[in-house]
Predict the structure.
Amino acid sequence: AEQGLKLLKATEATGAEYDAGAAEAYKREIEAKIAKLEMEATQLTGKDNKKERSAKGKEVADLKNEHKYVDACKIVKGLESKFGHFVTKEAVRPEIEAAEPVQEAVETKPKKENKKEKKAESTGLSHEELKELEDLKQKIIEEKAILKEQGLSGGQINKNEKIVAMVNRLNELKEKQDPGSSKKDKDAKKDSKKKTPLSADEQKEYAQLQGDLEVYKAKLRNEFGYSNKDMKADPDLKDMEARLAAFEKRS
């Protein structure tokens, strides 16, 4: 009976609850602002408007990196909030002194789940790895900002051990998520697709990538103080430009 009570208490543990409606509304609000700024930036052509274009790009980057917006995007995707926004009920994690026999009794069920997880991992990323992928993207941006404040140049930032380690891990996850996306297979991938017209989804991704590339370039120049030489060495920028070039060959 005592063990049964402990099992009952274990089932009472719940994750945090979020106001998904408010998160969705806030996400739409910020994305509307981003779309407006990006449209305004595309209309600012020529060298005379370069400063204003960069300012628009910085505004877009700031909105995309805002903690509340980051949380809204995560919650809409069904992930946990990173910065504590939109929480309506904190996670409940009761302390449980579970006896060993009880653990053995319920151990068979997690084993089945682990098999499913391994199967999912063999064809892509697990939920934990997807979360790690998103977190790494944000951490790289934050770490670069910290290093920039310390007076490091763009080239020094790219060679920083912590940045290199995070970028390598990011590339590992990208490769696992989309096998063949690494540089080793990039040429073969381009050759196999260059004569294939872009699908509707790819056209949408192409347009999104164009905007993201300009925003990222503006962020490197304005926030991190990158020179053109530093930008050419930035691994994230090179990856985005390579993907854009692949789309352009097929468009």
Observations:
- The two ends are 68 Å apart (CA to CA).
- The first helix runs from residue 2 to 11.
